[in-house]
């Protein structure tokens, strides 16, 4: 088709109906988006009307209350502590189980599917929901936060660990089997050396994610800096809130930076 | 030493071994010669049960394998294997790779914690000395060349102090000069220690050079048995059917015996 001195270079779809099926699909897509916008009450008009309020809120946060920093040190450090133990417990739970969830090592497919499903379930529940459950079970404080991160993280790590086991070179495993080595010896000498760098990288990434999650766990009473954040908002101390948010941003950026550098360093070491 | 009767192995519909009868004498260096896909690998794997035979008997020292896992591990301790792709663990040191040959004879828990009996370490070093790699013992295995990795593979097999070594195309990934070196190490060590070797090869010239006895395998059957001198042109055509026709891939037919080997080599590489 020619438009002035330009040509439209789109091939006519094959099939006897030409463009009509595409047109119908387009209409369907627009209808689906409209339906979703209705349900989610997406409204740019409302956003426009709300803009002055957002401005007002931000102006109340300014300037951040630097004096509040003194009260944030302890919860900030607690957040890091929650992330450390949440990650460690997740590793401890995932490692013994992940071998059963790898196709190439699992004793049989029933065990494989069962462990994979366990990982899926624990991974499927959000940390905040797990934290709510654990707060109800063991009471307020950082420990339910640790448990929430551990359970969700075990599912995540278990999946990653077992997938990296599936990617290893089978040759050395077969060679070890042929020497008469037992199952644990095969794992220690054949599997672990092949997956260890990938595992460390995943664990570092998990720690980074856990630190980010630990900053909000306090909102449901599971310890850490999030508790201060929600508290300051409830008391309308928006300048304190601003300080909290800035501290969280700095912490997350620092964790991101450190773990990225460490992962790069480890991956360089494998070459 | 090894006595195989009526061995059949099927993978689904495909019959890889169609009734193999074979005897291997103690201390013998037996070469199994045949094209890729003839069933040579499957034959070796049935001997140490990396593949479970569909039918037939395999006796080692006159004994059938009992169907429990302790017997299986004992069998594998006594029958070592060397692989085409070396199958060494790349991130472990050379010494530790050789030590893995001792795993079956070691207390489990200590080995999990990387604690090894000194006698086993001494055996591993002795085996490295046999393949002249003792000065590489502390290096990571992935820093070695292909030929050196295969020598580590041989040392690992020797470290098992086995009765039998099964070598599955040990030099198929190596250049001719390195291949001879590696096969020499294998032959020398096995002769010194009185180990029976069953070595799969597809190169006729190495088979002639190293085999004390040669078994020709083609399409899952034994088609020849005899000394290297008996490996005539007629026999080679039995082992490598279609060598003359070249199956349309190789144009000139080999006529002299000397060309036969080269031609087969080309057929393998195609």
Short overview:
The complex is a heterodimer of chains A (271) and B (270). With 271 residues, chain A is mainly α. Chain A has helices spanning 20-40, 44-61, 69-98, 109-124, 127-138, 142-166, 170-178, 183-217, 225-234, 238-270, and strands spanning 2-3, 6-7.
Oligomer: heterodimer
Q: Give the biggest sheet of chain A.
A: 2 strands, antiparallel
Structural category of chain B = alpha/beta
- Topology as H/E string of chain B? EEEHEHEHHHHEHEHEEHH
How helix-rich are the residues of chain B, as a percent range? 25-40%
Topology order of chain A in helix (H) and strand (E) letters: EEHHHHHHHHHH
Question: Cα distance, first to last residue of chain B?
Answer: 36 Å
Low-confidence stretches of chain B: 246-270
Q: Biggest sheet of chain B: strands, sense, closure?
A: 6 strands, mixed
Strand percentage of chain A, roughly? under 5%
List the helices and strands and how they pair.
The complex is a heterodimer of chains A (271) and B (270).
Chain A: E1 2-3, E2 6-7, H1 20-40, H2 44-61, H3 69-98, H4 109-124, H5 127-138, H6 142-166, H7 170-178, H8 183-217, H9 225-234, H10 238-270
Antiparallel strand pairs in A: 1-2
Helix pairs in contact in A: 2-10, 3-6, 3-8, 3-9, 4-6, 5-6, 6-8, 7-8, 8-10, 9-10
Chain B: E1 2-11, E2 14-24, E3 29-33, H1 40-47, E4 55-60, H2 69-78, E5 79-82, H3 94-99, H4 108-112, H5 118-130, H6 146-159, E6 164-168, H7 176-193, E7 196-201, H8 204-210, E8 213-218, E9 221-226, H9 233-239, H10 257-269
Parallel strand pairs in B: 3-7, 3-8, 5-6, 6-7
Antiparallel strand pairs in B: 1-2, 1-4, 8-9
Helix pairs in contact in B: 5-6, 6-7
Features:
A: mainly alpha; two-stranded antiparallel ribbon; 10 helices; 2 strands; B: 270 residues; alpha/beta; 3-stranded antiparallel beta sheet; 9 strands; 37% helix
Describe this structure in words.
The complex is a heterodimer of chains A (271) and B (270). With 271 residues, chain A is mainly α. Chain A is built from ten helices and two strands; from the N terminus they run E-E-H-H-H-H-H-H-H-H-H-H. Chain A is flat. Chain B is 37% helix and 22% strand. In chain B, the strands form two sheets. In chain B, strands 5-6-7-3-8-9 form a six-stranded mixed β-sheet, with helices on both faces. The C terminus of chain B is likely disordered. Classes of the chains: A mainly alpha (271), B alpha/beta (270). At the A-B interface, helix 7 and helix 8 of A face helix 2, strand 5 and helix 4 of B.
């Amino acid at each position: 088709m020619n438009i002035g001195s330009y040509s439209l270079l789109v091939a006519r779809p094959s099939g006897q109906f030409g463009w009509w099926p595409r047109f119908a699909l387009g209409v369907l897509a627009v209808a689906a988006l409209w339906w979703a916008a209705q349900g989610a009450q997406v409204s740019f008009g409302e956003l426009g009307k709300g803009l002055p309020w957002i401005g007002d809120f931000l102006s109340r946060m300014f300037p951040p209350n630097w004096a509040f920093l003194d009260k944030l040190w302890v919860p900030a450090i607690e957040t890091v502590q929650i992330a450390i133990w949440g990650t460690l417990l997740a590793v401890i739970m995932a490692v013994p189980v992940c071998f059963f969830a790898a196709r190439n090592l699992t004793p049989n497919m029933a065990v494989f599917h069962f462990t994979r499903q366990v990982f899926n379930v624990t991974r499927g529940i959000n940390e905040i929901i797990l934290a709510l459950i654990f707060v109800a079970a063991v009471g307020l404080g950082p420990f339910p936060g640790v448990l929430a991160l551990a359970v969700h993280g075990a599912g995540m790590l278990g999946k990653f660990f077992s997938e990296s086991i599936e990617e290893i070179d089978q040759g050395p495993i077969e060679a070890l089997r042929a020497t008469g080595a037992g199952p644990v010896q095969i794992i220690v000498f054949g599997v672990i050396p092949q997956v260890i760098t990938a595992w460390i990288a995943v664990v570092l990434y998990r720690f980074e994610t856990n630190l980010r999650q630990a900053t909000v766990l306090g909102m449901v009473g599971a310890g850490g800096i999030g508790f201060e954040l929600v508290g300051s908002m409830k008391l309308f101390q928006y300048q304190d809130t601003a300080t909290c948010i800035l501290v969280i941003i700095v912490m997350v950026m620092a964790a991101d930076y450190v773990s990225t550098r460490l992962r790069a360093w480890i991956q360089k070491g494998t070459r | 030493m090894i006595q195989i009767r009526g061995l059949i192995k099927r993978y689904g519909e495909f019959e890889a071994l169609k009734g193999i009868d074979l005897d291997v004498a103690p201390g013998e260096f037996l070469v199994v010669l045949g094209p890729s896909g003839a069933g040579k690998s499957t034959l070796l794997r049935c001997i140490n049960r990396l593949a479970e035979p569909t039918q037939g008997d395999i006796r080692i020292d006159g004994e059938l394998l009992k169907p429990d896992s302790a017997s299986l591990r004992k069998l594998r301790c006594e029958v070592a294997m060397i692989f085409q792709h070396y199958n060494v663990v790349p991130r472990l040191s050379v010494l530790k790779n050789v030590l893995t040959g001792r795993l079956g004879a070691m207390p489990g828990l200590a080995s999990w914690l990387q604690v090894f009996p000194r006698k086993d370490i001494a055996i591993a070093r002795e085996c490295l000395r046999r393949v002249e790699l003792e000065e590489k013992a502390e290096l990571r295995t992935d820093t070695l060349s292909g030929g050196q990795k295969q020598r580590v593979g041989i040392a690992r097999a020797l470290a098992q102090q086995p009765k039998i070594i099964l070598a599955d195309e040990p030099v198929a990934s190596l250049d001719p000069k390195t291949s001879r070196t590696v096969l020499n190490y294998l032959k020398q060590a096995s002769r010194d220690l009185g180990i029976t070797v069953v070595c799969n090869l597809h190169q006729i010239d190495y088979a002639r050079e190293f085999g004390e006895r040669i078994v020709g395998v083609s399409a899952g059957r034994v088609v020849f048995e005899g000394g290297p001198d008996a490996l005539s042109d007629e026999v080679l055509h039995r082992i490598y059917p279609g060598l003359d026709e070249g199956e349309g891939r190789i144009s000139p037919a080999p006529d002299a015996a000397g060309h036969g080997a080269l031609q087969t080599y080309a057929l393998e590489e195609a």
